[in-house]
């Protein structure tokens, strides 16, 4: 088997992987960027709407434009780009990592001193939400429908219904309408929408597409092709309420019911995963396995590609400067009002800049103060005018006040602000 050696191996050529590879190269490392698809860009290749790049480039770009900007930067370096190469196995031997790449040329091995996992996320499927009824054609995830419409130029149905109000479902409700399909409604089991407020306004309200909250699809009908679905109201515990069933005729059901970080390779490396499905990691994006870094949607599902690029650049730079050594990890202790905080820990032994954290609230909240206390001393108080679970928020802690020892206690609290 042919084998080649690098300082940093980045797995996944989406916006996260490209930003990580660039940052590692800028830090002087010999870098390989490995992507299983034929082209770099990840999911952004199929996101033809605009809104990308406002933070990173100060411009409104489409997904392919944003990806192309990064690809051009990558191609202007001597980073080795291995597209059409699927990493099927990865392991650690001695101080080095070895990844097995399968491509049309066969099997090859790549070794590296550190690894950045930028493998993105995947969508929850019909099997994972267990809808009763037959299994006809016409039921697909919103991302698959996005691929059909935006890459293949094919319409998956003419009378469509969307289950789940995640951002991809909202974006596809608009896209299908623009392509001439009728979108009969978006059904959401929770009492509030699951996507960004701006997507509800721009993708549903602007196109008169109804949003039914506290409702779900309870049954599908159709032998070969989907013919109809049964929708029901749900109670506060999201259980269908008997007697509220209505049958809606449709030929296509799109599912937008959640994204799951893709971390099979991380698991092969023995990396512990956190509550959100991404690896537990420190503020340098290093997982609990030394030398293994994680970024982008593989680390935590982000709602802005610009945030993905930002955290991935940090992961790439830190992977480049990685040297084995003991870490002083202090884990944040958020209260129950936080749904997720990422990364989960600070490494006191490798703390240079103010560490940045992303979080989502567990419930909708009005004015809120987030307070961080280190060993009982307040080190951050930040106010937010509104918090919603779908909207990722961020804060940074002042590095100068983070004199950490192994027994330090770092708590995070949310309090109603007046
Ligand atoms: C289906 C879907 C649709 C989306 N649509 C939108 C949208 O319309 N608008 C929006 O703002 N955001 C959208 N997003 C969010 C968007 O994915 C992120 O903002 C951004 O693309 C995340 O970047 P990433 O690099 O972390 O992941 P990705 O873009 O998913 O890139 C990960 C890459 O890793 C590669 N990979 C994974 N495993 C391996 C392996 N073992 N070997 C080699 N390569 C591997 C994949 O092929 C992929 O190219 C969507 C996400 C999904 C999942």
The end-to-end span amounts to 65 Å
Please indicate the percent range of residues in DSSP E strands (runs of 2 or more). 25-35%
Small-molecule binders here are:
flavin-adenine dinucleotide
CATH architecture of the largest domain: 3-Layer(bba) Sandwich
User: Whole-number radius of gyration?
Assistant: 22 Å
- CATH top-level class of the largest domain: Alpha Beta
Mean pLDDT, all residues: 95
Please render the helix and strand layout as text.
Layout: E1 2-11, H1 15-26, E2 31-34, E3 50-52, E4 61-62, H2 63-75, E5 80-82, E6 86-93, E7 96-103, E8 106-117, E9 121-123, H3 126-129, E10 132-133, E11 139-141, H4 142-152, E12 159-163, H5 167-178, E13 182-187, H6 197-204, E14 211-212, E15 215-221, E16 228-233, E17 246-249, E18 252-255, E19 259-261, H7 264-268, E20 292-294, H8 305-320, E21 329-334, E22 338-342, E23 345-347, E24 356-361, E25 368-374, E26 377-384, E27 393-396, E28 410-416
Parallel strand pairs: 1-2, 1-8, 2-5, 8-20, 10-15, 11-18, 12-13, 12-18, 13-14, 21-28
Antiparallel strand pairs: 3-4, 6-7, 7-8, 9-19, 15-16, 16-17, 21-23, 22-24, 24-27, 25-26, 25-28
This protein binds flavin-adenine dinucleotide.
Descriptive tags:
FAD/NAD(P)-binding domain, Immunoglobulin-like, 3 domains, five-stranded parallel sheet, 8 helices, binds flavin-adenine dinucleotide
Structure explained in plain terms:
With 418 residues, this protein is of the alpha/beta class. Helix content is 19%, strand content 34%. It has 8 helices and 28 strands. The protein has helices at residues 15-26, 63-75, 126-129, 142-152, 167-178, 197-204, 264-268, 305-320, and strands spanning 2-11, 31-34, 50-52, 61-62, 80-82, 86-93, 96-103, 106-117, 121-123, 132-133, 139-141, 159-163, 182-187, 211-212, 215-221, 228-233, 246-249, 252-255, 259-261, 292-294, 329-334, 338-342, 345-347, 356-361, 368-374, 377-384, 393-396, 410-416. Strands 1, 2, 5, 6, 7, 8 and 20 form a 7-stranded mixed sheet that branches. A 5-stranded parallel sheet has the order 11-18-12-13-14. Bound molecules: flavin-adenine dinucleotide. Flavin-adenine dinucleotide (FAD) binds next to helix 1, strand 6, strand 9, helix 4 and helix 5.
